[in-house]
Amino acid sequence: MLFFRGNEYSVDCGYVSYGSKSKNNEHQIPNVSGQNNNKKQEKNWVSKSFHLNSNLIGLYNCIEINNKSLDQYMSFNTYYRAGTRKQGDLRQINAFYVDLDIYTKKKSLKATQRYLDNLIRKKLLPPYTFFVSSGRGCYAIWCVNHLQGKSRKVLKKTKQIQNHICNLLKNYGSDAVAKALDQPFRIPGTYNTKAGKRAEILCYNEEAYYELEDFFEFVPFEKDKVDTKPKRKSHLDPTTRPKGGKIKRLYNPYTLFVARLQDIEKLIELRNFDVRGSRNNFLFVYHYYQMKTKRCQIGAARKETIELNSRFLEPLEEEEVLNLIQSSENRAIMSEEVNQEHGYRYKTSTLLRLYDITEEEEKHLKTLISNKTKSNRRNEKERKARRNKEGLTKREAQKIENFNTVVDLFQQGYKQIDIARKTNLSKSYISQIIKEYRMNLKCSNNHLHV
């Protein structure tokens, strides 16, 4: 209920951390498949990581409900790597929560629950999803639909929400340490060895699942500080502006990925779908760009890649394709959610060499082109830009306009000195135009006479 409500299992949810602590020194986790967290083990404390998509059953098998000498905990949130609960490795934030040590304030469970319900009625908090007795204390949980742990904006809002909840419940023993995003919680149904009681779910509200925006009306968020530092121009979003200030060309990673996909499809079409020798490379790179343009929607990217493979003269088996693109899938997700540095950055020169693209093929492509082809296209575009609709340059058009103006005034009977005053042209230039006009006129008359 905490991890999968409203989400598809195909989405990579990451690793959850399980830990247990025993009074004796010989405590061991049951022999279930999972990754041991052996980096910094405390005495009597054993922990293990489980990938929620592939090993959720292993997590269930690990929990010992009836073991009265074992304290068992699990992380609310999930992580990119096994064996860690560092905030820097957060993949998904699944809940807001508050841990209440009510025994330190001499408060009862019923009084605490009544106080929480009163805060909810006053619109200071939204209804909680779970209210759990942990043995000696209790905790309340507000489930959210998988917020991205690597987003700075999300983390900032999340911390403010956690602080707001803890501040409202200070008088009921809200644990300031336990409000951290990497804090584990006692698993309901297991025993609290100090109290000799089970942790129990006292209340569950199946409607209380939230988006981050749902908390905005309850929490007085701090205003963002105005950044007075000048923004550095990112090399990932090179926008060229002419002197007039208007955008001449918008170029960013997304539009580049889309153009790359179109080029790969066109190149395969030019080769009549016979890509033997480079079939695997085509599928791998094509799938990576599909993941980037579809914002890491795994199902959609796989569908497009399998469709492309089916058009090859000698396609791979579907299972082979899925095995081939696994690394591409992981890298795309890491670059999207963790850091751009984790992704693949294919240079144009690398792809030209990889696919052995010829100059004839480059004529039909947009971005998979050599520097020579790019230079030729730029020069051709500049040549066309210099000419008007009649195919004349600015200088040629001005020359024709001057000729027609001078001849028109000459035919009206104006002298050359008067024409010079009216047109601001030199006398010698006007004399040359009139001379050329008379020669053309004489040639025209001779032609008519013959």
Automatic annotation (TrEMBL):
<feature type="region of interest" description="Disordered">
    <location>
        <begin position="370"/>
        <end position="392"/>
    </location>
</feature>
<protein>
    <submittedName>
        <fullName>Uncharacterized protein</fullName>
    </submittedName>
</protein>
<feature type="compositionally biased region" description="Basic and acidic residues">
    <location>
        <begin position="377"/>
        <end position="392"/>
    </location>
</feature>
